[in-house]
Write a structure and sequence with these properties.
The chain is an alpha/beta fold. It has three domains: 4-122 and 254-324, FAD/NAD(P)-binding domain (3-Layer(bba) Sandwich); 125-251, FAD/NAD(P)-binding domain, CATH 3.50.50.60; 331-414, no CATH class. It has nine helices and 27 strands. The chain has helices at residues 17-26, 57-60, 66-80, 126-129, 142-151, 167-178, 197-207, 258-262, 300-318, and strands at 4-6, 10-13, 34-37, 83-85, 89-95, 98-103, 106-111, 114-117, 121-123, 139-141, 159-163, 182-187, 211-212, 215-221, 228-233, 239-243, 246-249, 253-255, 287-289, 328-332, 336-340, 343-344, 355-360, 368-373, 376-382, 393-396, 410-414.
Length: 415
């Protein structure tokens, strides 16, 4: 069988907000083709089936629904001159910047001068969370729920339990209401729900969703269809049964990192995404990464701004930027779980939006950030916004001033 070879200047794998925004920025600025590959029927990523408002605030400076936002990003990329191929799956690497692809046109080989990985992240389903019990119908992730309701117009149940208290959990509650399904309970393992206070207050007031904090689902009950879940309080270990016919697992994201692993790119053990520097370079020259593949997980508009940032770095690579300087590893210290980007190189730009992104396992109302190198405190700063589990904690890049390029790894911690 003959395999057609495509030779774009830039290959972008993933047609969500990060990939499409990068394509729209790059296409008018380079001579060759910018090719976007997406495995779904339509490009646009998760916003395609998130039929509620709140998208586009940071990148477009206006607010729109998820489907409208997705269509806008697709139109923006194609109008700029990028090519988008959907229902097209990258099966494996075929070289440093080459991949084998299958799609409606058959098998393809794509050889590019630069590659951007923008494959996003996914929620861990029930099996990955090791929730015991029966295996009935009516168990979803948020993505599966919204796909069923908004794209396939399927019916769900009449009473749901939502597992998780992140921002996406409230998105699931909105979708359930639109589908005619009441949310009987939201279950969060943390003392406070993980999303921002404004969403928690609005969600409880407008959606009237009760929340069980410091709790977890220990069992799903039901033969043909979900009938109930068993809930355990993590402090008292008391258990109770909550009747429902639908369970939605939300959040607990993991980067969609199969191509990172299969390609032998360095993986950050904290984020489980590719290890990148502030220019969003991976460990392979000419291969970059952007969006929620880098870490779990930020909003769509922030991922889109990653796409803008990586476009500048890809253009610099294509125009002959030299090899980057050796990097300093940035390490997270407990209670922080990870920090992204994970490498600092002299002469590189600040990270996207001028911020380091971190994840904490402990709530701190006024976090005191401490940056150390070789056992010496380089900088300290108390920030006026909280660090809380279940959501990205942002730290200004300026805390990294004063580091030595010849020094050892950099450690960032909180107290």
């Amino acid at each position: 069988m003959t395999t057609t070879t495509l030779t774009p200047d830039v290959l972008i794998i993933g047609g969500g907000p990060a990939g499409l925004t990068a394509a729209a920025a790059l296409a008018p600025r380079i001579r060759g083709e910018v090719l976007v590959l997406d495995r779904e029927k339509d490009a646009g990523g998760i916003p395609r089936h998130s039929d509620h408002t709140g998208y586009g605030l940071r990148d477009l400076r206006r607010v729109m629904t998820g489907p409208k936002y997705a269509r806008h990003l697709v139109e923006q990329a194609t109008s700029a001159g990028a090519t988008i191929r959907t229902e097209t799956m990258v099966t494996h690497w075929a070289g440093d910047r080459a991949v084998e692809v299958t799609g409606p046109q058959g098998r393809l080989r794509v050889e590019a001068k630069a590659v951007v990985l923008a494959t996003g992240a996914r929620e861990r389903p029930r099996a990955a969370r090791r929730i015991p019990g029966d295996r009935p119908q009516g168990v979803y992730t948020t993505g599966q729920l919204q796909n069923a309701v908004h794209l396939h117009h399927s019916e769900v149940g009449s009473r749901a339990v939502i597992v998780g208290g992140e921002l996406v959990s409230w998105s699931a509650a909105v979708t359930l209401r639109e589908a005619g399904c009441a949310t009987g309970l939201m279950v969060s393992q943390y003392p406070r729900t993980e999303s921002y206070a404004a969403f928690n207050v609005a969600g409880r007031a407008l959606l009237r969703v009760p929340v069980a904090n410091r709790s977890r689902v220990t069992r799903i009950i039901g033969k043909g269809r979900v009938e109930a879940v068993e809930i355990e309080n993590l402090d008292t270990h008391a258990r109770r049964t909550v009747a429902c016919d639908t369970v939605v697992f939300t959040g607990d994201w993991i980067p969609d990192h199969e191509l990172v692993r299969s390609g032998g790119l360095d993986l950050d053990p904290g984020t489980l995404g590719p290890l990148t520097d502030t220019a969003l370079r991976t460990s392979r020259p000419g291969v970059f990464a952007a969006g929620n593949l880098l870490h779990p997980v930020d909003t769509a508009d922030v991922a889109a701004l990653d796409g803008l940032h990586v476009a500048d770095q890809v253009e610099a690579w294509l125009t002959g930027a030299g090899e980057p300087a050796p990097g300093l590893r940035i390490l997270a210290e407990a209670p922080l779980r990870w920090v992204a980007p994970g490498l600092l190189r002299p002469g590189d730009p600040a990270p996207p939006r001028g911020r380091l992104l971190l994840w904490t396992d402990r709530s701190i109302r006024f976090p005191h950030v401490i940056v150390s190198q070789n056992g010496r405190v380089v900088s300290e700063r108390t920030l006026p916004w909280p660090a809380a589990p279940g959501r990205v904690f942002r730290v200004p890049w300026s805390v990294m001033k004063g580091l030595s390029a010849q020094g050892g790894p950099v450690t960032i911690g909180l107290r």
